[in-house]
Amino acid sequence: MTTRVLFVCTANSARSIMAEAILRQLGGADFVAESAGTEPAQPDERALAALEKLGFTTSGLRSSRLAEFDGQQFDYIISLCDRTRHECQSRFASQNFLAWDFADPVAGNTLELFDRTALQLKERIEMFLRVLSHASDRGHLFDRPQSFFKIMADPLRLQMISLLAQHGELCVCDLVEATGMSQPKVSRHLAQLRDYGLLIDRKTARWVHYRINPALPDWMRHVINTVNDYNLNYQTAR
């Protein structure tokens, strides 16, 4: 089944155009990627150059008005700035809406910012694709709120999620020390949280470091932050 994704931004000239091109190439035939703007301009030549530096095709890219996609159904609507998140979240309330906030390289007006934004979008989209690839018969975390709350109901998982919300990134040894649980038990639960798409990891030498997946929908991040703010028992320092 083909997954349809629409990236939205204000001008549809840089961030959303780059995201469209990146997902088209990385997702292949399994994905249909589109992009649109609430106030579309023209594709920024610096954005196109940044894509080409990373090996992405730019042919056929154009700035589109969001109204062109009225009535169409997408599996995911992804906003790339706060402005479009506020403008579009209610508009697409019946569809899966994700908010990714990327600084506007046009405002910075340097080639380095366009290169950096393209690279960051590539990394985020690769992460998004990895999360989707872990979808199973249990239902994908993004699509089924009950799966998310079932995960949060486990005391150890909830404590580790809260610790990661506080500190940003922790290694397995940090979480073992903070929770008082055995390393195998902590690692097993962390692997499950990663497979659900709630966490991402990176390896350095013999340690694995975890952090909350930045691609989570706003409402999930809000639940995590609320739990963290009002449950002092989970606020254990390193």
TrEMBL record:
Stored InterPro entries: ArsR-like_HTH (IPR011991), ArsR_HTH (IPR018334), HTH_ArsR_DNA-bd_dom (IPR001845), Ptyr_pPase (IPR023485), Ptyr_pPase_sf (IPR036196), WH-like_DNA-bd_sf (IPR036388), WH_DNA-bd_sf (IPR036390)
Ribonucleoprotein in keyword set: no
PROSITE patterns, per the entry: HTH_ARSR_1, HTH_ARSR_2
A Pfam family per the record: LMWPc
GO molecular function, a single term: DNA-binding transcription factor activity
Ranges for domain HTH arsR-type: 137-238
Keywords tagged on the record: Arsenical resistance, DNA-binding, Transcription, Transcription regulation
GO biological-process terms attached to the record: response to arsenic-containing substance
Listed name of the protein: ArsR family transcriptional regulator
Species this chain originates from: Pseudidiomarina insulisalsae
